[in-house]
Amino acid sequence: MKTGVRIALTVCMLFTVGCAGGRLVAQVRRAERRWQRGNVGSYRIEVSLRRATWHYQTHVVTVRDGEVIGASASCVTAPMETALGKKCEVEDFDPGTYTVPGLFTPARSLSEADPGGAVKIDFDDTYGFPRWISYDLADVVDEDQAWSVGAFEMLE
Fold first, then answer.
1. Which residues are bridge partners to 71 per DSSP?
2. Axis-axis angle for helices 3-38, 100-113 (nearest 10)
3. Minimal CA–CA distance to 89: which of 44, 49, 57?
């Protein structure tokens, strides 16, 4: 293949990957603005975090007037825990990580660092919060993580 054609193809590929990543960053920004405009200060949210085959934990966080007032977690035994003869143990966690603003933190950082489509984010149509955040690098085993919102309830 001629050098000029190779350079043109490389530029096209980089432009395509860059635009895809840029679109995801823009989607996160729009969704975060939608959430902020909604001025939702009181809610209960259930967020599950799956770390590959290593650990699966669900967090329920209650927020009143923008402040965490309650949090709990439960887990199920993940495949690697089973393989190692372990039962799941609820890991310590920062409840703020599982609030809506807390979910925007990995959404922003992962979308900005997205190495060629490894990051997937889906947003709630009504409020804009991330319903699903995941990444999975094609050439790496067992590094994938996924955050999923199982329930969201506005509180009076």
1. 61
2. 170
3. 57
Secondary structure (DSSP) of 101-150: HHHHHHHHHHHHH--SS-EEEEE-TTT--EEEEEE--TT-SS--EEEEEE
The pLDDT value given to residue 39: 95
For residue 101, what are its two tokens? 């603003």
What does each C-alpha distance from 147 to 5, 89, 91, 129, 134 come to in angstroms? 41, 18, 15, 12, 6
pTM flag (> 0.85): no
What are the φ and ψ backbone dihedral angles of 40, each rounded to 5 degrees? -85, 115
What is the predicted pLDDT for the residue at 138? 61
Q: Greatest CA separation found in the chain?
A: 66
Q: Are 110 and 93 in contact (CB under 8 A)?
A: no
Q: Point out the residues of the chain with pLDDT beneath 50.
A: 1-20
Q: Both ends of the chain: CA-CA distance in Å?
A: 65
- Which amino acid, 75? C
Quick one: pLDDT at residue 5?
A: 35
Per-residue exposure over 69-86, b if at least 16 CB sit within 10 Å of its own CB, e if not: eebebebeebeebeeeee
